Amino acid sequence: MEKMSKEEVRRFLMHGTRTGKLAVVKKDGQPLVTPIWFVLDGDDIVFTTDKASGKGHAIQRDPRVAVAVDDETPPFSFVLVEGTVTISEEPDDLLHWATAIGGRYMGADRAEEYGTRNGVPGEYLVRIHPTRIVARASISD
Length: 141
Prior knowledge:
Elements: E1 2-3, H1 6-14, E2 20-25, E3 31-36, E4 39-41, E5 44-50, H2 54-61, E6 64-71, E7 77-88, H3 91-106, H4 111-118, E8 123-137
Antiparallel strand pairs: 1-8, 2-3, 2-6, 4-5, 5-8, 6-7, 7-8
Helix pairs in contact: 3-4
């Protein structure tokens, strides 16, 4: 098992279409884990979510989150990011990042389609500002 460098973490997080598994705490204290599509902006993980969703409500109430991203093929690797979120509803930023995220997961030819679908009123632009990162490569070696 090897620790990843900061650059290795960035490459790992942006490789292909790996989803993040976002962990938040619901109002009743129960954990909620949901998949997210995301991109990076500097050190921040950026995603969108419906503000009326479970994760939307949770991050409004408590900005502390964690995201796990893993490679499910041998020799297995993962990145765990703990951090705090900031939320924006600024229309131009929301459209820009929703388009970038759509392009990553659905391809450049569908980026605009997904940007206009997900970059709309009622959605949050969420930035996770990392406070701790645990990243390990080649776990089974």
